[in-house]
Write a structure and sequence with these properties.
Blueprint lengths: L10 H14 L11 H11 L7 E4 L6 H21 E4 L7 H13 L16 E5 L7 H13 L4 E7 L7 H4 L3 E4 L5 H14 L6 H11 L3 H14 L7 H8 L4 H13 L2 H13 L4 H14 L4 H19 L4 H17 L2
Helix pairs in contact: 1-9, 2-3, 4-5, 7-8, 8-9, 8-10, 9-10, 11-12, 11-13, 11-15, 12-15, 13-14, 14-15
The protein binds adenosine-5'-triphosphate and magnesium ion.
The site of magnesium ion has 4 residues, from helix 3.
Keywords: Acetylation, ATP-binding, DNA replication, Nucleotide-binding, Nucleus
Pfam family, one: RCF1-5-like_lid
Family: Belongs to the activator 1 small subunits family.
């Protein structure tokens, strides 16, 4: 991998990978696409209005972290940023002790309403608690008092994927904003913009494929684009390359598997499942695609609900580290049993 002739290490790849990842993060709130409500609130505070405590939640890669970082940078400018913004994410220790010491101490500092360059800036600091759903409940509870007591000088911005993992007393102290999965059109525009800036050759189908496989997660789409560009130096990026990189199972294979469930024998089923696992397709990916297909099959509601219930169990087992082959086989067996009632 580290040999000098290895294509992946060509300097221009490094250039591409670094530049696209950093430059794709919106620099100002205006560049944040598709999240109009939160952008409107942040723009008001950029014009001098007060800012509430914020809680951003929603699926990955929809702009939560980018939005607050851009807003903080615009509010304070590069110099004040370090003094005024405390940013903690899941890679930092955020147990109760850190909340008591670091967060509380930072929150207690008082601040002025002007920047060193004379421009005015908000008379408060911002504490960003990214990935807050991984904070323990006691640590969250410890935030309650601090949030109230220091409300004169500090605003909190909590960010998470799952709002149900934030304790109620905290959610009720914040203005909540849900970040939506990005619309296909918006993702397409961003991807095209990046392709233009990076001088990539691409087909229309490849962009459509990127949008399809990333399901509203723009970060995922950009990362796939990056990998595809690395694989296809000086060549056009094709939809096949994208699908290959995303690890999507070809539709034909899924169809084949279902046909065996419906009409084949258990022996054939075993072989088919074994082949798919041996080919390296992720069981969770196969599960997702099977789910999409089963929903559209000509089965009764009762049969579909039995199958999807089994899917939920398999999904949980897989995330707990169960054997992929056995789990898939057990799911397919249920599909087979249900189909045999037809
Ligand atoms: N609404 C958006 N507007 C513009 N770019 C976006 C948007 N959402 C995501 N992106 C792109 O995706 C990348 C990742 O976004 P970001 O880190 O803000 O996601 P996130 O919502 O914080 O995800 P996670 O929940 O995984 O932390 C950004 O660098 C940016 O290029
Ligand atoms: Mg984030």
């Amino acid at each position: 991998f580290f040999s000098p002739s290895c294509k992946v290490l060509k300097p221009d790849f490094f250039f591409f990978s670094l530049s696209s990842m950093n430059s794709s993060r919106p620099k100002c709130v205006d560049e944040v696409a598709f999240q109009e409500e939160v952008v409107a609130v942040l723009k008001k505070s950029l014009e001098g209005a007060d800012l509430p405590n914020l809680l951003f939640y929603g699926p990955p890669g929809t702009g939560k972290t980018s939005t607050i970082l851009a807003a903080a940078r615009e509010l304070y400018g590069p110099e004040l940023y370090r003094q005024r913004v405390l940013e903690l994410n899941a890679s930092d220790e955020r147990g109760i002790q850190v909340v008591r010491d670091k967060v509380k101490n930072f929150a207690q500092l008082t601040v002025a309403g002007t920047r060193p360059d004379g421009k005015s800036c908000p008379p408060f600091k911002i504490i960003i608690l990214d990935e807050a759903d991984s904070m323990t409940a006691p640590a969250q509870a410890a935030l309650r008092r601090t949030m109230e007591k220091e409300s004169r000088t500090t605003r909190f911005c909590l960010i998470c994927n799952y709002i149900s993992r934030i304790i109620e007393p905290l959610t009720s102290r914040c203005s909540k904003f849900r970040f939506k999965p990005l619309a296909n059109q918006i993702q397409e525009e961003r991807l095209l913009e990046i392709c233009e800036k990076e001088n990539l050759k691409y087909t229309k189908e490849s962009i459509a494929a990127l949008v399809r496989v990333s399901e509203g997660d723009l970060r995922k789409a950009i990362t796939f684009l990056q990998s595809a560009a690395r694989l296809n130096v000086d060549k056009e990026i094709t939809d096949c390359a994208v699908i290959e990189i995303a690890g999507v199972v070809p539709d034909k294979m899924i169809d084949n598997l279902l046909q065996i469930c419906f009409r084949g024998t258990f022996e054939k089923l075993e072989v088919a499942v074994r082949n798919m696992v041996d080919e390296g397709y992720a069981a969770t990916q196969i599960l997702t695609q099977l789910h999409e297909c089963v929903i559209e099959q000509d089965l009764s509601d009762k049969q579909k609900s039995t199958i999807t219930e089994k899917m939920a169990v398999v999904c949980k087992c897989l995330s707990d580290g169960a054997d992929e082959y056995l789990q898939l086989l057990s799911l397919c067996s249920v599909i087979m049993q249900e189909a045999s009632h037809n």
